[in-house]
Recover the amino acids of this structure.
């Protein structure tokens, strides 16, 4: 079922955020506006939501991991180059999407369901984004 949630004119924005988190936890997929456009968001622990989003990808394309910033990225990657660290700390939050090579799942990435890991790391690369958004 589709529904429109107007965060900007909501009387209680906290209730809106709680509602969105509850819906994502139940496996729903959300479309939201970020600083550079519109993205689809799903909870990484819900394989059905991940597969629903992956169904809209072009062949060879992978899903992107959205993080709150550089510090959260460290939970998913074993190491980050100096250039990567600088880009993340200076350009995030923002529209810069960074692609990093990964040999094996590490940290929190290792704890994700197998299909989520596969959808995030096609071609041994992980795409990471830290957008300006109320919900990410």
């Amino acid at each position: 079922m589709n529904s429109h949630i107007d965060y900007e004119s909501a009387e209680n924005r906290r209730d809106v955020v709680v509602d969105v988190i509850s819906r994502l936890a139940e496996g729903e997929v959300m479309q939201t506006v970020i600083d550079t456009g519109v993205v689809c968001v799903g909870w990484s622990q819900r394989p059905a939501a991940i597969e629903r989003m992956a169904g809209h990808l072009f062949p060879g394309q992978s899903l992107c991991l959205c993080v709150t910033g550089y510090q959260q990225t460290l939970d998913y990657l074993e190491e980050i180059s100096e250039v990567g660290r600088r880009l993340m700390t200076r350009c995030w939050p923002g529209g810069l999407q960074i692609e990093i090579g990964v040999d094996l799942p590490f940290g929190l990435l290792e704890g994700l369901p197998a299909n989520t890991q596969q959808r995030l790391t096609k071609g041994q690369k992980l795409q990471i984004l830290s957008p300006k958004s109320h919900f990410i």
Observations:
- The helical segments are 13-25, 47-54, 70-73, 82-91, 107-110, 114-120.
- The mean pLDDT is 88.
